[in-house]
Write a structure and sequence with these properties.
The protein is an alpha+beta fold and 339 residues long. It is built from eleven helices and 15 strands. The protein has a five-stranded antiparallel β-sheet. It has a three-stranded antiparallel β-sheet with strand order 1-13-12. Strands 3-4-11 form a three-stranded antiparallel β-sheet. Strand 3 and strand 4 form a beta hairpin. The chain is elongated and about 105 Å long. The relative contact order is 0.15.
Length: 339
């Protein structure tokens, strides 16, 4: 989980061995493997690759620009979203290169708010009752909290079911699903027969990243969703239109939680706890739009990040094309005046 504040960037990591005792889970930096590969349509760590933590805020300032560049590159190669859904080897290479630098987007921990697994705890016979183990894992502002309890059919009016509480990526609708519906697609090595009863690791733990993979089409769809959400905000007109246009961006930052943290100087500060890299980049885009750091190129209209108050173009080629077009326009105007 990434932590961001207006004045300082902090990280805090709890031992992953504490997860099943309901203690605080991993909070702070994001994770990436040294190398990735695309296998059977999913982005996953390459064989032998080591998992590393890194601080996105210190190194990149959590800029959304590299993801926007990846979307732009994919669109230029495939000429539209329908073709991006079946990416070429070139696009696969660009995705792997991006993931080596930043890691996976964390789409599943972004969308899942909590999950519950129910399993038989003791075999029934004539001398013992049937017990069930209920494992509940919930996302909070400080990480993923896990607890386990045992129940018997006699003590419960209705036995809990194994299920996942998941939110749509582009909206606020929340639904309950079996693990086999969405969750299992991110764990391709789990056999189909075990989808509902497999002991899935706590999100963002070391074991989680070892087993987790993101389908290429889901990765690209999430990246395109964020890029298009930014463009819709730019194109919005009246207040009513703006609210509709900003809906997707608001949905993308909805998993972000607010928390308080006391700094080393004793001051209490507000921070945003982001459950995924996708949420962090969406929050960075939202703040950039509000603060004027995320702008739109005057030549091609693409969003770009700049710290210069005079920044108008996403790349030098756009500045040259814009100036060349203005030069030709002035030449035409002068020739008309001289006629």
């Amino acid at each position: 989980m990434l932590i961001m504040s207006g004045h300082e960037r902090t990280s805090e990591v709890e031992s992953p061995n504490q997860s099943d005792r309901g203690e605080r889970l991993t909070v702070g930096k994001w994770w990436r493997f040294q190398n990735y590969e695309i296998q059977d349509g999913a982005i996953r760590p390459a064989s032998g690759a080591r998992l590393k933590e890194y601080d996105l805020w210190e190194r990149e300032g959590a800029s959304v620009q590299p993801l926007l560049d990846l979307v732009s590159q994919a669109r230029s190669v495939h000429s539209g979203w329908k073709n991006i859904a079946m990416p070429s080897a070139e696009t696969h290479g660009e995705i792997v290169k991006w993931c080596r630098r930043y890691g996976l987007l964390g789409i599943l921990p972004h969308r899942v708010a909590e999950f519950r697994q129910v399993s038989r705890w003791k075999n029934a016979d004539s001398r013992s009752e049937v017990l069930y183990r209920v494992r509940e894992v919930v996302r909070s502002a400080t990480g993923w909290a896990s607890r386990t309890r045992t129940v018997s059919p006699e003590s419960e009016s209705r036995l809990p079911r194994s299920e996942v509480v998941i939110q749509d990526l582009e909206g606020f609708a929340v639904r309950m699903e079996p693990f086999s519906q969405t969750w299992a697609t991110y764990f391709p090595d789990v056999p189909r027969k075990q989808h509902e009863r497999y002991a899935y690791p706590v999100p963002l733990s070391g074991d989680f990243w070892q087993q987790y993979a993101e389908p290429v089409h889901e990765f690209l769809a999430a990246a395109v969703t964020l890029a298009d959400a930014i463009l819709r905000v730019r194109e919005a007109g009246a207040d009513a239109d703006f609210n509709v246009a900003a809906k997707t961006l608001h949905a993308l930052v909805s998993p972000v939680r607010v928390r308080l943290q006391r700094g080393t100087d004793g001051r209490v500060r507000q921070q945003w706890a982001c459950p995924s890299l996708l949420a962090s980049l969406a929050m960075s885009a939202l703040l950039g739009l509000a603060q004027g750091a995320l702008r739109f190129c005057e030549n091609c209209g693409a969003p770009f990040v700049t710290e210069s108050y005079q920044g108008k173009f996403c790349k030098p080629q756009c500045r040259w094309a814009y100036e060349k077009r203005l030069y030709r326009q002035r030449q035409v105007e002068e020739s008309v005046k001289g006629a």
